[in-house]
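Hello again, I could really use a second opinion on something today. I've dropped the whole record in just underneath, so have a look.
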Amino acid sequence: MDQKTTIYDIAKRLDITAATVSRALNNNPKISEATRKLVLETADKMNYKQNRLAQSLRSGKSNNVGVIVPRIDSNFFASVIRGIEEELHPEGYHVIICQTHEDEKREIENITTLLNAQVDGILMSISNVSKENDHVIKNVVDKNVPLIFFDRKKKMEGVSSVTINDFEGGYLATKNLIEQGCKRIAHLTGDQSLEIFEHRNNGFKKALADSGLELNENYVFQTKSNVDAGRQAVEKLLSMNPPPDGIFSSSDFAALGAIQELRERGVKIPEEFCVFGFGNEPFTRFMELSISSVDQSPLEMGKMAAKVFLEQINNTDNIKIEKKVVLTPELHIRKSSTRK
């Protein structure tokens, strides 16, 4: 079997160092045009062109795009990825998917790996807003690799983003609970340092204020996006005097846990207690007691993020494109919040 040609083979043939060959293949400005041309021609003759990375270095494009998400096992992120892939595949791009598991060290590793793989762009939903990984994210921008945030984003100059109007989603969901007669509404929120949860919380508070209802800070719980967290929150909420009569949850999974705990305790939904979720996960509509939820349009979000990337990568005018696309949330009102 033929051995693969390496940069050392090319260096030996040309009687130059492997470092010079590497720099030439990487279009390093320190290498003269004559040397770069000679290295590329020799690489071709020695069949080094079969190496996909070498081809991408010559063309300046790998036709790979990195997508970083907190987790893949949610309908929301899976649908965003599908939207990205559907938009990019016809344009000849392949998608490399990485997940962070909400861990900023994993996020740094993912970004570094994708940059080393010479991806043409990175589309990401951040794990958290800690500044520890800001230098790595800024490195993407400094290398002129298109970077697009979707759903969860950082405030960074020169970086485009695609989100939904989380404030409006929180406002409309809470307003629906008020219209159904709820007077004491609790809110299960996510990590407030993330803009999406801050904005949903602000929408919740504004809806209460506009309806003349008092905000009870004891009714606001920061929870994780899982069933157990929703159960535990309800356990605490029902021990209060007076207990709430409605919940707006920033997560469908926490909303599901809340409903399970309420029903186990004999609380009638929606007659005595209404619940509204966020995310429109598939289970919300297929349950016997369907759950009201805010749709985040993940497929559209993915397609839009991909379109913003294509616009940046195809921009030949060298003008920095910074787009802030905000999608409109859609309410799906179901049994869990419908009294009237």
About this structure: The chain has a mean pLDDT of 90. The radius of gyration is 25 Å.
